[in-house]
Amino acid sequence: MSDRIIAIGDIHGCSRALSALLSAIEPQSGDTIVTLGDYVDRGPDTPGVLDQLIELQRDCKLVAILGNHDQMLLHVIRGELDRELWSGCGGAATLESYGYEGDFNVIPATHIEFLENCVDYYETDTHFFVHANYDAGLPLDKQSDNALRWRKLTEEIPLPHVSGRIAIVGHTPDKNGEILDVGHLKCIDTCCHGGRWLTALDVNSNQVWQADNEGTLREAAD
Predict the structure, then answer these.
(1) CB atoms within 10 A of CB 74
(2) 13 three-class SS
(3) Mean pLDDT, consecutive 10-residue segments, the chain of 222 residues?
(4) CATH 3.30.230.10 matches 5-218
(5) Of 39, 35, 47, which is closest to residue 9 (Cα–Cα)?
(6) Counting Cβ atoms within 10 Å, is residue 88 exposed (0-12), middle (13-18) or buried (19+)?
(7) Can you give the residue ranges of every domain in the chain?
(8) Residue 2: its pLDDT value, please?
(9) Are 70 and 42 in contact (CB under 8 A)?
(10) Cα–Cα distance measured from residue 209 to residue 26, given in angstroms and rounded to the nearest whole number
(11) How, if at all, do strands 208-211 and 217-218 pair?
C-alpha cells in the first residue's frame, strides 16, 4: 500500500464516528491524515475526539487544521470571548462533556496544547486543505482569518485557487450527508453531529469512508 493523504471533515465531538473511521482506514506510518478542524462543540464527546487525535499522532503524520469552533474555545479560555456566546454556538455540549462547573482547568492541558498547535492550512503538490474557504487570488499565507475559518460556501463558492491546486474544505455542512464536488473544490463536512456522516477522503485515490455518530460505517459511492 502506497502512502496515503486522507482528509477528515468536521468531527464536532463525534468520537464514535472518528473511532470507526480510523479502524476502517488503519493508518500506517507513511500516511498523512489531515483533519479539517472543528473537533469541539455540538457533538457529545469532545474529550474523546481530542484523545484519539493526540494518540493518532503516534501512528502516522497528523496535520490538524484549526476550525472556527476550536478557535472560539481557545478565545474563551483566554478571556477573549464571552463564554455564554460560545455556549450558544455549540460550546454547551463541550462544557457538558468535560463536566464543567465553572473551572476551565477541567479541560486537560494536553487538549489545549493540541488546539494551540493546530495550523491554518496544509498543501501538497496537487491539493490544499483549509477549514472553511479561501480567496482565490491570494496565496495561502495571505488569507484572512474570516476566509479560512468563517466564510461558508453558501456565501461564496470561490473560483479555482491561483495555485492551481484542488481545495479540500469543511465548515459548510451538507445536511444530506453528501460530499460537495465542484471539481476545483471538495467539501467533506457531511454533518455528522446532525445525524449524518463523518467523512474521510483519500485525495489521491478518491476512496471514501463514512461513519455515523453511533460508529456505523456507510459504503459511500465513488
Answers:
(1) 16
(2) coil
(3) 91 98 97 98 98 97 98 97 96 97 96 98 98 98 98 97 98 97 98 97 97 89 48
(4) no
(5) 35
(6) exposed
(7) 5-218
(8) 76
(9) no
(10) 12
(11) antiparallel
